[in-house]
């Protein structure tokens, strides 16, 4: 009996050691070529130096016969269960990607997103997918900013774009502009404004074309104008318009291209009591109108002036700050 076997026997531990498979494989690697005829005693000593067969992990004779076999039989089973769960999870994820839930695309939470800006106190929804479920890669090109720092649309700097979103592949532009009405409209009270006059005032301030007299001319053709009283008490004018656009990739062979849009305008008084026009405009190439027209009207109906909070900054507060 070796010294280690005698020590283990004195501690009440069986001297008969049954090495695990890993220890046997490791023992074969460590065994020299001339050890084929090695004695069982020397083999026991070498096995006792293996990690899983150390004296710290050895138990009594009855436990040593059951515990190792149970451990070695349980570990592969637990590993198989883990692999099975992982495969089930991967299969479920693959099915979810391959077969998405189409009903969710028809809900407002997926089809529209909301943009709210407390600084100028307005809010609206914009489409992010079509009725067929096609995604619209709409991104914010101009973050919302106050009127004083917004970029002017024309030289007189009345109408300024305070926020803008674009979808380059589809030629979509969504913008909110704020500014005072032109002098010929501001001479009248807002209660006396006619819907078509409001639409013309907004579209003329967006245009840069002029006639020989120097008077600015609108390049948009107004098709429909409606006026409604909102639940918040504000008046909203909604209208459709068509304008000639730059060459389009949708009709590269045509010499002329047109853009169609839906807009909604409301007004709010500044600190000085003068009215300021708030306009949401959604435009796209005319070839996309059949797919986006209903969504644009729904987005225009969602536009509203929210009650001012502490974060509200009136448009007439430092109006020339951007210079």
Q: How would you describe what is shown here?
A:
The protein starts with a helix and ends in an 18-residue tail after the last strand. The strands form 3 sheets. Strands 3, 4, 5, 6, 9, 10, 11 and 12 form an 8-stranded antiparallel β-sheet that branches. With 323 residues, it is an alpha+beta fold. Mean pLDDT is 73; it is low at 11-16, 33-81, 95-108 and 210-217. The chain contains 8 helices and 13 strands.
Describe the largest sheet. Answer: 8 strands, antiparallel
Indicate the radius of gyration in whole angstroms.
39 Å
**Mean pLDDT, as a whole number?**
73
Described by the principal axes of the CA atoms, the overall outline is: globular
Which percent band covers the strand fraction?
Answer: 25-35%
The topology string of helices and strands comes to: HHHHHEEEEEEHHEEEEEEHE
Structural class: alpha+beta
The percent of residues in helical segments reads: 25-40%
Number of strands: 13
> Which segments are poorly predicted (pLDDT under 50) over 5 or more consecutive residues?
11-16, 33-81, 95-108, 210-217
End-to-end Cα distance, whole Å, is 99 Å
Output the number of helix runs: 8
């Amino acid at each position: 009996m070796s010294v280690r076997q005698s020590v283990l026997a004195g501690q009440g531990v069986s001297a008969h050691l049954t090495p695990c498979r890993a220890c046997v494989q490791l023992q074969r690697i460590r065994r020299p070529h001339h050890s084929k005829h090695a004695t069982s005693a020397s083999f026991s000593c070498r096995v006792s130096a293996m990690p899983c067969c150390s004296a710290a992990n050895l138990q009594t004779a009855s436990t040593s016969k059951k515990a190792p076999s149970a451990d070695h039989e349980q570990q592969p089973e637990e590993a198989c269960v883990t692999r099975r769960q992982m495969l089930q999870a991967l299969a479920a994820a693959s099915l979810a990607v391959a077969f998405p839930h189409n009903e969710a695309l028809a809900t407002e939470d997926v089809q529209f997103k909301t943009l709210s800006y407390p600084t100028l106190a307005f809010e609206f929804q914009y489409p992010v997918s079509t009725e067929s479920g096609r995604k619209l890669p709409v991104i914010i090109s101009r973050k919302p900013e106050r009127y004083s720092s917004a970029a002017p649309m024309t030289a007189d700097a009345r109408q300024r774009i305070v926020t803008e979103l674009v979808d380059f592949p589809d030629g979509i532009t969504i913008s909110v502009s704020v500014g005072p009405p032109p002098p010929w409209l501001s001479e009248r009270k807002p209660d006396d404004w006619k819907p078509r006059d409001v639409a013309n005032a907004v579209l003329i301030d967006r245009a840069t074309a002029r006639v020989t007299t120097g008077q600015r001319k609108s390049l948009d053709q107004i098709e429909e104008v409606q006026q409604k009283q909102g639940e918040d008490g504000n008046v909203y004018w909604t209208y459709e318009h068509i304008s000639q656009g730059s060459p389009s990739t949708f009709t590269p062979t045509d010499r002329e291209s047109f853009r169609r849009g839906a807009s909604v305008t409301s007004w709010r008084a500044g600190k000085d009591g003068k009215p300021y026009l708030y306009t949401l405009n959604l435009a796209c190439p005319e070839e996309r109108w059949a797919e986006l027209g209903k969504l644009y009207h729904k987005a225009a109906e969602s536009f509203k002036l929210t009650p001012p909070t502490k974060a509200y900054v009136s448009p007439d507060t430092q109006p020339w700050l951007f210079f």
